[in-house]
Design a protein that fits this description.
484 residues; alpha/beta; 7-stranded mixed β-sheet
């Protein structure tokens, strides 16, 4: 590709919400034309990604539309857009909150980015990145098309790796009865109406799967199993602020934080507030809370408290909660606290052995299908993602010590094998949550992406001496890179 100038090239790997938000803010906050912005994403549209591209209308956003946004300082941005498009009546609750299908939020993100794609301010390469290496003072990104592109700055915006198969059921890998990808709506739709189903996991993804089955008229028995049997909670009905402030004199131990949260819940209850108030404040002050904790204490939270945080933090939409409650009341859904022990398949189905948490008894049950909903396997991302594996092989990235993605400094700068924070390799979105703490919800990801974009904008505006020295080499390298 011929380059008419020496503009720096910013390559964003991943065009889901994190990558799209980074590109959006980088193009929106300019200055116009200061950098060439390229998003590498195999899907036809930038923005929806895995989370917001589902075609199942049952899959809803998990918070009211008024709390979802692409622009951190404008919480009503999505709600204003939503008011201009048709929304099914069942998306609105009795109290007036709107929980549209997730694909609607994906369309919103894509529509906000569309003008920048049309103007050429952002370019979409519809392919995958295969590997990345250092070259000419920057990076060479090898693409699945067989071409490559030279980059001055790279943003790692991959968000959600596939769930890992729990060890006791790995023998089922490749079985037609095993649904290893819970986002494969076609496989979920193929489950028979009378089939017995084991759902491994009891969080948000499990709720989506169960709701999808119910919407298709599934009548068979469903067992949702996890070690603690903790089900994602519902949304708050009061929305009263907590009396607590966790950012003031923050705790430095996991135990101290737990005790402080429990005390805040009790104090709020005495004042007529429910637990949502305190947990909402923990979420809002997540960065300050996490930043005060030493790495060892963060590890204790991940090992011992994360499962409890997840079910209180990642709540289901009221419509989904109603489906789960009805299924439990009808005896079609059983939430079980147990540990998987083994699984075997024969001609009649899959027999799964699991040890009950309550009394330690080993139980065996036969199922027609097993669906894995254990969540993204961020801890193994350097092994499962070929691009990140190439970065790791070059010593440019390291895994977060607590299995939360990548090790980053200053909230978004990748850290190499020597402990140095990069000035040209950034991490946007959930892969940076080991440093940020609370970084899975759309509002937090949007804010983080905006910060990454601002850091890149400053970097482009004041290039380093090394960047200036290698500018000519970078331009020459780009001439032989991927064609338009």
């Amino acid at each position: 590709m011929e380059r008419p100038d020496h503009r720096p090239v910013v390559v964003i790997l991943g065009g889901g919400f994190a990558g799209a938000a980074t590109a959006f803010h980088l193009a929106r906050n300019g200055p116009p034309g200061a950098a060439e912005i390229v998003v590498v994403e195999p899907r036809p549209t930038i923005g929806p990604g895995l989370a917001y591209s589902t075609d199942d209308p049952v899959h809803r956003i998990n918070v009211p539309a008024t709390r979802m946004t692409l622009v951190a300082d404008d919480p009503g941005h999505f709600a204003a857009w939503l008011a201009k498009v048709p929304v099914p009546a069942d998306a609105t609750t009795a109290r007036g909150d709107v929980y549209p299908a997730r694909e609607v939020f994906g369309r919103y993100v894509a529509s906000e980015l569309a003008p920048f794609l049309a103007s050429g301010a952002v370019r979409h390469l519809r392919c995958r990145a295969a590997a990345v290496s250092l070259a000419d003072g920057g990076y060479r990104v090898e693409l699945s098309s067989g071409e490559d592109i030279a980059a001055d700055i790279v943003v790692l915006a991959m968000s959600h790796p596939a769930p890992a198969l729990p060890r006791p059921i790995r023998a089922l890998a490749g079985s037609a009865r095993l649904v290893a990808d819970p986002y494969d709506n076609a496989r979920i739709a193929a489950i028979g109406a009378e089939e017995r189903v084991l759902v491994v996991g009891t969080g948000l993804t499990a709720a989506d799967v169960i709701a999808s089955l119910a919407a298709r008229g599934h009548r068979g028995h469903v067992v949702a199993l996890s070690r603690h049997g903790l089900r994602s909670r519902g949304q708050d009905r009061q929305r009263l602020p907590s009396l607590a402030d966790f950012a003031a004199d923050p705790e430095v131990t996991a135990r101290g934080l737990l005790l402080r949260i429990r005390a805040a819940v009790a104090a709020d209850a005495a004042a007529g507030r429910d637990w949502h108030s305190a947990l909402g404040t923990v979420r809002a002050q997540g960065r300050e809370i996490w930043a005060a904790l030493p790495q060892e204490e963060r590890g204790r939270i991940v090992r011992h408290l994360r499962r409890f945080w997840d079910v209180h933090r990642y709540r289901v939409a009221p419509q989904i909660e109603a489906v789960l409650d009805a299924a439990i009341a009808a005896g079609r859904l059983e939430i079980t606290a147990a540990r998987l022990a083994a699984a075997r398949e024969d001609g009649d189905g899959i027999t799964v052995a699991y040890r009950l948490r309550a009394d330690g008894q080993l139980r065996e049950s036969r199922f027609d299908r097993v669906v894995v909903t254990t969540g993204p396997d961020h801890g193994a991302v350097l092994d499962t993602n070929p691009v990140l594996r190439s970065f790791a092989a070059a010593g440019l990235v390291r895994a977060d010590p607590n299995g939360l993605g990548l090790l980053v400094a200053d909230l978004f700068r990748a850290v190499d094998d020597h402990g140095r924070a990069s000035s040209s390799l950034f991490v946007a979105g959930p892969l940076a949550r080991g440093a940020v703490g609370e970084l899975m919800g759309a509002p937090e990801v949007a804010c983080h992406a905006e910060e990454v974009a601002e850091a890149i904008r400053r970097r482009v505006a004041t290039p380093s001496a090394e960047t200036r020295r290698t500018g000519a080499n970078r331009a020459a390298a780009h001439q032989s890179s991927v064609r338009r």
